[in-house]
Amino acid sequence: MKKIFFLVAIFAFSVSCFAQEKTKSKRQEKREKRKEKVETMLKLEEEGVIVNKKHFLAAIKLNSDGYGGFIEKGIAQSVNKAMLFQLEISERKHSKETKEVGAQGGGAYFYGKINFFYPVKLGVQQQFLLGNKGNKNGVSVSANFGGGLTLGLLRPYLLGYLDTAIANRGNIIYKGLEPNKTDSLKFLSDVAIGGPAFGVGFNKMKVNFGAYAKAALRLDYGKYNEIISALELGITAEYYGKPVQQMIYSKDNNFFFSAYIAILFGRRK
Questions:
Q1: In 3D, which of 249, 163, 263 has the Cα closest to residue 220?
Q2: Architecture of the structural domain at 53-268
Q3: β-bridge pairing 159-163 and 66-76
Q4: Coil, strand or helix: which one is 165?
Q5: What is the pLDDT of residues 184-208, one digit of tens each?
Q6: Which of 23, 140, 192, 260 has its CA 20 to 30 A from that of 29?
Q7: What is the C-alpha separation between 43 and 32, in angstroms, rounded?
């Protein structure tokens, strides 16, 4: 009985080792094929052949005056050039925004804020490759220049206040500083109990049309050329047809300039 058990144990151990060795062999074979493919792609690029004709990516970005994100489709024109098509949306904050605590233990709000400001950009950029990866673990550097149209979406900042007549919460929208604008007088008083609830004011959105220009430096550190894992540093300049109202007692601007840093994820095909 002991001999049978011993033989069964040896057989099971042998099968396990064989399976592990087979798995390792498959992994090794896959790695070698991957390595050969990368080397072939790099060689073709050196010869001027376009290996990946397009790419798709998404990005999150932190601006010097807000935050946002964009999606991008790129079409290769040569090994060193590509055309980029971008759709971006962000929220721009005003430098004078300060949080206040609402009356009667209410929530926080921004005193004097008139509108949320959401720039939506649709544009085209030209990308120039400055330095390729050279190997699967390298970093490629490229420069992007371009611009396009921007829609400045203005969502009114509806301030919450307690209506003592009906003992219920109401919303105040800023309408100007004229004495007969009673809501605007409340807007500047101390009756506020908090900022607008999420989603409030979208039905009163206004649009301000403009244009923008953008320049950036992109560092792609993704493994292999098929994967995009990149960091982008850039600047953006925007101009709108009408002055943008953001805060009371602050100058309404047509022109905005900002710097940003973005993290990009995507894939080439």
A1: 263
A2: Beta Barrel (2.40)
A3: unpaired
A4: coil
A5: 555 555 566 667 777 788 888 999 9
A6: 140
A7: 16
Bridge partner residues of 192 (DSSP)? 161
Q: What is the pLDDT of residues 7-37, one digit of tens each?
A: 555 655 555 555 555 555 666 666 666 566 5
Task: Determine the Cα–Cα distance for residues 40 and 178; give it in Å rounded to an integer.
Answer: 72
Torsions phi, psi of 250, nearest 5? -125, 150
Tokens read off for 9: 């144990």
Residue 68 has pLDDT above 70, yes or no: yes
Question: How do the domains of the chain map onto residue ranges?
Answer: 1-49, 53-268
Are 220 and 139 within 8 A, CB to CB? yes
Question: What is the residue type of 200?
Answer: V
Helices (H) then strands (E): counts for the chain: 2, 13
Provide the mean pLDDT of the chain: 78
8 A C-beta contact, residue 186 and residue 248: no
Which stretch of DSSP H or E encloses residue 220? strand 206-220
Please, are residues 170 and 163 in contact by the beta-carbon 8 Å criterion? yes
Burial class (CB in 10 A: 0-12, 13-18, 19+), 244: buried
Q: Using an 8 Å Cβ cutoff, are 228 and 160 in contact? A: no
Task: Provide the sign of the torsion angle of the four alpha carbons 115, 116, 122, 124, taken in this order.
Answer: positive
